[in-house]
Write a structure and sequence with these properties.
Strand content: 25-35%
Largest sheet: 6 strands, mixed
Structural class: alpha+beta
CATH architecture: Sandwich
CATH topology: Immunoglobulin-like
Number of helices: 1
Helix content: 10-25%
CATH superfamily: Immunoglobulins
CATH class: Mainly Beta
Radius of gyration: 15 Å
Distance between the termini: 22 Å
Shape: globular
Number of strands: 9
Order of helices and strands: HEEEEEEEEE
Length: about 150
């Protein structure tokens, strides 16, 4: 089951990459305004946790709703998991799917990921229906974990 979830997540990343690569007009879209007080956070793991790979990452959101990519609905967005990024990606353009920026355009609120042993940082960034982060950004505090 875990392997199936990883495969589906991987396919969604590939699909998102293809959609973004053939839709350059999205990069010129303006950022949507985030509702006041909207927050995104990691439920698990938490800062300082020691985990074994693969592990479950659960996303939390307050003050907004979750909707799949491509669904334009006021006050909603979808999650992007930032892995080991030293700084936030460009917030004025559509987020590109990479190993360090994982898209959850299906509206997922959790995933199972595998990371190599060592220290890693995880952070969530919410984006609108076309993968453009909100203004102001709805971004979690980074969480540092140790993978055994």
């Amino acid at each position: 089951m875990k392997r199936a979830i990883e495969i589906v997540s991987g396919l969604l990343i590939v699909l998102a990459s293809l959609v973004l690569s053939v839709s350059p007009v999205w990069a010129s879209e303006s950022r949507s305004t985030a509702p006041a007080g909207a927050t995104v956070y990691l439920i698990t793991p938490q800062d300082g946790d020691v985990v074994s790979s693969p592990f479950t990452v659960k996303f939390g959101l307050s003050g907004m709703g979750v909707a799949p990519a491509g669904v334009e609905k006021l006050g909603t967005g979808h999650h992007h998991l930032l892995i080991d990024l030293a700084e936030l990606p460009d917030l004025d353009t559509s987020l590109q799917a990479t190993d360090q920026i994982r898209h959850f355009g299906g509206g997922q609120t959790e995933t199972i990921i595998s990371l190599p042993p060592g220290e890693h940082t995880l952070q969530l960034l919410l984006a609108n229906y076309i993968h453009v982060p909100y203004n102001p950004p709805v971004v979690s505090e980074p969480v540092t974990i140790m993978v055994e």
